[in-house]
Description:
This protein is of the alpha/beta class. The chain has one domain: SGNH hydrolase (Rossmann fold). It is 36% helix and 11% strand. It has helices spanning 2-30, 101-113, 149-156, 184-208, 227-244, 272-276, 315-336, and strands spanning 46-47, 53-54, 93-99, 118-124, 160-164, 214-218, 247-249, 267-269, 286-288. The strands form three sheets. A five-stranded parallel β-sheet has the order 4-3-5-6-7, with helices on both faces. The chain has a two-stranded antiparallel sheet with strand order 1-2. It has a two-stranded antiparallel ribbon with strand order 8-9.
Amino acid sequence: MSGKRTTSWAVAATVLGLLAVAVLGWRLLVASDPSGAAATPAAPAARTPEGKAVPGDGGAPGETPSGSTADASTGGDPGTDQAEQPAPQGDPVPALYLGDSIAMENQIVLAGLLEKTATLRNAPYSGTTVCDYLERGKDRSLVPPQHKAAALVREVRPEVVVLQFWGNAWGYTPCMGSIVQGSEPYYERYVADVRALTAEIERAAAEAGIARPRLVWVLQGPDPMAPDRIRRVNGIYEKQARAAGDLTADAGAAVSRPGDRYTHVERLPCTAYERAHPEYCTDGTSTRLHRSDDYLHFCLAPTTKTPKPCAKRSPGVLRYSRAIADAVTGHVRSTRGT
C-alpha cells in the first residue's frame, strides 16, 4: 500500500509540474506585446504581414492598430536619440521583420526608429520559432504559407531581413515537435533550422531576381530559468552569421547588466536618454525592463490574450529596438558609403 501511495504522489507531482510549465508557457506566449508604441505619424513605414500600413487603419492618433489607447506623446521619442547613428542618405530600403512575441511587441517602435532607413514589413507571430518560417517544413506551423520567409522575400524583395527568435520550443510551437527546450536535440534542431532558413531566403531572392538580402540575427536577452540556453542559442546565431556573411544585433546586451551579459535583471540604471526623458526612467534612478510577472517580455502593459504591439511606453522595448535599428542603420550606411 505504501508503495502505491508513493507512486500516486509521484504521478501527481509530475502532473502538477507539467501543468506549471504549461501555464508559464502560456503566460509567456500571451504576454506578447511590449512597446511604448503608440500609433504615431512616424509609424506608417511599418507594414503588416499583408502589406498594409501600420497603424494606418483610420484610428485616431494615440491608438495602436488594435484600438487600445496609448500615450500619444510617445510619438517621435524613440528617434530623437539617434544622433550617433544618423540616417543614411537615399531612400529607405525595403526590409522584413520576422519573429516571435518579442518582435510582435516591439515592431512599431522598431519601425519608427528605422523610418528614414528602412520601410519595414512586419510579419511576427507570437509563440513561433525558426522552423515556423520555413517553407519546406512538414510540421504544423503557426505561420501561414503566404507569410513564410521565402514567400515574403519573393513579394517584398527586401535588402535586409531581421530575424528575432527567443528560442521557443513550447508545447504550442508545433513545428518543434516533442523536442525538449535546452536538450541537445533542441540545439541540433536550431543549428539545422537557421541554416535551412538562410538557404530558403537565398533561393527566394534568386527566384525574385534580386541580390541576396543581408540577414540580421537578433541576439537574445538573459533567460533566468536556463541562463546557458540563451548563451548557446546566441552562439548558434553568431556562428551562422559569420559563416554566411550576415550580421547580428546584440539587443540582449541592451537589457543586461554591463559585464554580466547573461544574468537576468528586472531593472537597470537609467541611461542618459532615459534620464533626459523621465517617463522612461520609471523607478527614480533606475528603469524597469520587465513586469514582475513576466521575465521574458519587455512590455510594461498588462498581459493580453490577443497578441498585438505594446500599448505602453516601455524602456526595455526601446532599448531592445534601438540595438536592432543601430545594426540595420549601420549596415545600410556601409553599403552606401555614407
